């Protein structure tokens, strides 16, 4: 673990460091804002500016001689990095996708390890190109190879706002990856920095190593985690309980995001903690919100409100009649033994459609409007299933292949448009290129990934000071996201067309305002609960936006 010495940003500590004898004096030097000197600064990615250190800082922080004399501006450094990245793209043309993706991840990761300000700036400005590398789908490949790729730990911090925790038991659709799953909290928190403007000094990725049941990893001599089977039952829960108590004792105002826990623990831990701690489960709640936004969005903006109103107007039992749940054993009916209580309301009458019916049978019988894939199994929306969707009762059927990473998607975008028809709405968890259709139009791909929701849920909750995340806050987030999908042909990609920070600010504001409605806001910093409740929608968006961190080099010494 790396301990970052960030002392020196408060007035008191500026006073303490002011007389540091290690500051080489020029005229009448002002105080230095950092305790570290020389190579310690260059090796700290938070402070490091590489060749961008101005002369005053080189003098006073003991950097002369450690850097080449020429000063390179931030913009030049930025352009140079982008040029190296593009040259890597050129040099790896024609090589296998996995090799290229990992090479791209390495060059970004090396920058992250060296200079965080530059790293986050290139990430924010090029989020469309870089999110698929630091996040889904390449992060899956990184997790699979993590023990071999590992170079340097990612930190320990003084103050924490956002924690993303995993136990590594269900990493994307790749199964149990043990400690190598740490790549997911790191990737999610990078998205928190890029999309929500959470200060990278205040995020904490956590991997709880409770063992792994992945035999290949247990036998791999390079595997970095505990070589023991996963803890189970009460022993497991005691560890999670201890973590939650410790985290909230240390950082009572933090928000904890549970990520990629296997279903068996995802639902149980959510029930156990959601009324007690400020936490949510991204895969359960964030994903439900994205799927809901997608469903509302496919109705078109005009009818979204009506759809919500109608949904609110019917009972849960009525609503479940419209859903057909298929798992690895086929369609779930009441004939199934040992039904999970959460599944019971969805179980169909076997007289209507047989127990265990395949996806294609269900599609042919039900002629659904929407096909939603969260199976983790690549390709199960095969040609036959997709062709059956042509008989959908909807004139604009929706196909969401939400499983990650790319190879685990239920179908590709190209296959969906080719087999199911050119009138479909397509969404996928991992990015796909838009598809050139035979009729000359473009088949638009929406990225139906919780990355459009969790940053706003986390940021809105944090800035509200709420101590729990309510259903109202989650529904507000989904409805807000749905409003970004319009029915116009040209705007089908609108989720990705708007800047992700813009979407996050709006989603965050919706979450915060829902927390106000639920009367649970406690305020954040100088902004009290009354201030929050008096803010208009626009003022709330503005408040959220003003609280976003942005990467620029800060001066490390006072000029005077
Ligand atoms: N796009 C997103 O934002 C997003 C969010 C969360 C999860 N996911 C993806 O969803 C996938 C599943 O995650 P999860 O947490 O729901 O996993 P899970 O293990 O809880 O659920 C998988 C389900 O798929 C069923 N299944 C397995 N094989 C099947 C088959 N051949 N046919 C039909 N059903 C089958 C299983 O019975 C199970 O019910 C993963 O790939 C994950 O990456 C995507
Ligand atoms: O990580 C992602 O890309 C989305 C989601 O949380 C998943 O588990 O697949
Ligand atoms: Mg996940």
TrEMBL record:
Keywords: Metal-binding, Oxidoreductase. It holds the Pfam family Malic_M. NCBIfam families: PRK13529.1 (NF010052). The active site is at residues 135, 188. Belongs to the malic enzymes family. PANTHER family: MALIC ENZYME, MALIC ENZYME-RELATED. (S)-malate binds at residues 170, 404, 449. Its cofactor is Mg(2+); Mn(2+). Gene3D superfamilies: 1.20.1370.30, Malic enzyme, N-terminal domain (3.40.50.10380), NAD(P)-binding Rossmann-like Domain (3.40.50.720). InterPro entries: Aminoacid_DH-like_N_sf, Malic_enzyme_CS, Malic_N_dom, Malic_N_dom_sf, Malic_NAD-bd, Malic_OxRdtase, NAD(P)-bd_dom_sf. This is Malic enzyme. One of its GO terms (cellular component) is mitochondrion. Divalent metal cations. Prefers magnesium or manganese.
């Amino acid at each position: 673990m790396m301990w970052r010495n960030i002392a020196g940003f408060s007035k008191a500590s500026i006073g303490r460091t002011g007389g540091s004898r290690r500051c080489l004096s020029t005229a009448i030097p002002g105080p230095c804002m950092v305790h570290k000197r020389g190579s310690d600064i260059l090796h700290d990615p938070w402070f490091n500016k590489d060749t961008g250190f101005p002369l005053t800082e080189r003098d006073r922080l003991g950097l002369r001689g450690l850097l080449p004399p020429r000063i390179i501006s931030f913009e030049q450094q930025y352009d140079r990095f982008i040029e190296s990245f593009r040259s890597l793209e050129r040099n790896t043309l024609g090589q296998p996708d996995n090799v290229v993706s990992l090479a791209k991840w390495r060059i970004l990761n090396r920058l992250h390890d060296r200079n965080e300000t530059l790293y986050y700036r290139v990430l924010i400005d090029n989020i469309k190109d870089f999110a698929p590398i630091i996040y889904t789908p390449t992060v899956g490949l990184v997790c699979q190879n993590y023990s071999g790729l590992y170079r340097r730990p990612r930190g320990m911090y003084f103050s924490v706002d956002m924690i993303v925790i995993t136990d590594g038991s269900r990493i994307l659709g790749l199964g149990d990856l043990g400690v190598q799953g740490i790549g997911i909290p790191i990737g999610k928190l990078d998205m928190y920095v890029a999309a929500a403007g959470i200060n990278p000094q205040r995020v904490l990725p956590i991997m709880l190593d409770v063992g792994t049941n992945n035999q290949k990893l247990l036998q791999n001599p390079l595997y970095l985690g505990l070589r023991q089977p996963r803890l189970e039952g009460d022993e497991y829960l005691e560890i999670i309980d201890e973590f939650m108590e410790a985290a909230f004792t240390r950082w009572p105002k933090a928000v904890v995001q549970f990520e990629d826990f296997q279903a068996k623990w995802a639902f149980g831990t959510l029930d156990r903690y959601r009324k007690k701690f400020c936490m949510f489960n991204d895969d359960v709640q964030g994903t439900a919100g994205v799927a809901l936004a997608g469903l509302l969005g496919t109705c078109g903006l005009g009818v979204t409100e009506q759809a919500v109103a109608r949904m609110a107007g019917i009972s849960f039992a009525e609503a479940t009649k419209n859903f057909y749940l298929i798992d690895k054993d086929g369609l779930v009916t009441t004939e199934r033994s040992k039904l999970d209580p959460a599944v019971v309301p969805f179980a169909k009458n076997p007289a209507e459609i047989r127990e265990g019916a395949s996806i294609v049978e269900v599609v042919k019988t039900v002629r659904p409007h929407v096909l939603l894939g969260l199976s983790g199994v690549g390709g199960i929306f095969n040609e036959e299933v997709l062709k059956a969707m042509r008989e959908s009762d909807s004139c604009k059927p929706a196909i969401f292949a939400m499983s990650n990473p790319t190879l685990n998607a239920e179908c590709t975008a190209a296959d969906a448009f080719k087999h199911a028809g050119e009138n479909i709405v397509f969404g996928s968890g991992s990015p796909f290129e838009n598809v050139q259709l035979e009729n000359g139009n473009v088949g638009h791909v929406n990225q139906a990934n919780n990355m459009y929701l969790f940053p706003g849920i986390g940021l809105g909750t944090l800035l509200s000071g709420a101590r729990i995340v309510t259903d109202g806050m989650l529904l507000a987030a989904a409805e807000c996201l749905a409003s970004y999908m319009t029915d116009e042909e040209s705007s089908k990609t609108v989720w990705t067309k708007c800047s992700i920070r813009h979407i996050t600010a709006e989603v965050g504001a919706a979450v915060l305002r829902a927390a106000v409605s639920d009367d649970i806001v406690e305020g954040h910093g100088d902004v009290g609960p009354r201030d929050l409740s008096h803010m208009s929608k626009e003022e709330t968006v503005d408040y959220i936006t003003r609280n976003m961190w942005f990467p620029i080099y800060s001066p490390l010494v006072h000029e005077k």
